[in-house]
Amino acid sequence: MKKVLFFLPVLLCNCHTLFAQFNEHPILNLENEDKKRINWGYFLGFNQYDFKFDYKEYDPAQNKTDVLVAKNIGFNVGLIGELRINDYFDLRLEPGLYYTQRDLGFPGFSDERDFLREVKSTYIHVPLLLKVSTKRLGNFKPYIVGGVSTSLNLSSSQDSAEDNETGTFRMKKTTYYYEIGFGIDFYLYYFKFSPSIRGVFALTDELIPDNDPNSPWTSNIDGMYSRGVFINFTFE
């Protein structure tokens, strides 16, 4: 009972501080954070990339032309440069390094050496985004974000003379995307923390067809487009 009586004032003090962040007059952290003309930060996060395939011929009854895609969890790391336009709009540049892997299964093969292609990618991803925020609500502020981006695939085999006949799945080095997402800025005592989720969709075809126009791997593919989900945790 003595221990309970000892910790009770401490508990009540902490609860008062917590609830003060959400009442009508919260204790504001980093009051001048959003008044800076230029802001810097960094992010860490996770990604999951997929492929969207367009086919020249498709028979849904037989379902023979579908390339199977097994998605994996990758990770992201990068920097943030933000230019303040006004209280509600910011322009952001977020260059980062993104690691991912997708496993492709091509139907019609019995040998795993022909059926399976592991597509490992290391992207330098550079988005230019417009961040649209609400009015600050105490110590948090929701926002949406959207824009365009480009990436350089450091793992690309674009210049390779080999193709799927020798087990090499070729992709283009450069891809262009559009992005859209949302997040929340949390104003902590020493820094601003922002979790966000974003969808990324390729605008350009990434596939390099095999040398043989009748290739069983690529002859029926009309286009291959990356798409993905990014979950980032930003520190500013």
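The record above closes out task 2.4. Task 2.5 opens with a second protein, given below.
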Amino acid sequence: MSTRIQANLPHMSSVMVKIAELLLEHPTLPLELSITELAERAGTSAATVTRFCRQIGFSGYVQFRVGVASDSGRGDAHESWRADIGRAFAPEDTPGEVLSTLLHAHVRSLETTARQMDLAAVTAIAGAIATAPHLDIYGIGGSAGMALEMQGRLYRIGINAHCWSEVHSGLTSAAILGDGAVAIGISNTGRTEETIQMLSQAKSSGAFTISLSNNARSPLATVADVNVITAAPEQFLQPDDLSAKHSQLFVLDLLYLLVAQHNSAETAAKLAASAMAVSEHRRPARRDARTTTRKGGGR
């Protein structure tokens, strides 16, 4: 692997050279670090690590990691498990042990997020959303699902909210935002390039910008006017574990409720109207036959 990296050095950009130098000094790092952790160690982005992998002949980081494992003689199933699942879980753990570890990770993430939250800032964000003429929410990959869920809930209570998970469409929307508009960028690491670009464009257009990530010093946080920080997974869990997303959903749920409170009467009216509109598409709750028999005096 070192020979392959050195052969491609003359064709690498300066940011890729940082990755190359790090790996030449520590060739087995990819077996221990996720793509995000390796990018952070090299002082670059996950997208740059992916481009680096392609530069030296691999289709992505996973394939590169397999190549490193093969070269180092550590390409066994146990090492692959540690690299991709994390060191908090072991293949031989009982279901009970997996459950306990997972529960602890999720609870700890939620509690840490709540403790470090700037509630005054979150309340101010909710007020801005409640009165905004237009709200953009940006998210890529796993964050796109959360952006879509938040958009749907806010739209139902009268917020002119739109979510964007494709960068061209998101940039188009961000470019036509104006004063009073609000834009939220969701990225666990705060290093997703497309989300950074969309939020940056929204800020340039005059929108009030908010980042939701686990790193107050991330590129996304640097772009935003206000940052909401969620707890990152523990040391031996992968940074893209669902415990991290759970914390972000917790914050989004809080924002939704605070926005709903801003004009509770109007919120209640809109929720009732939307519930009525879809009522015919929901099957009625099934009554318990035993309860019906007892109430009717049957056997």
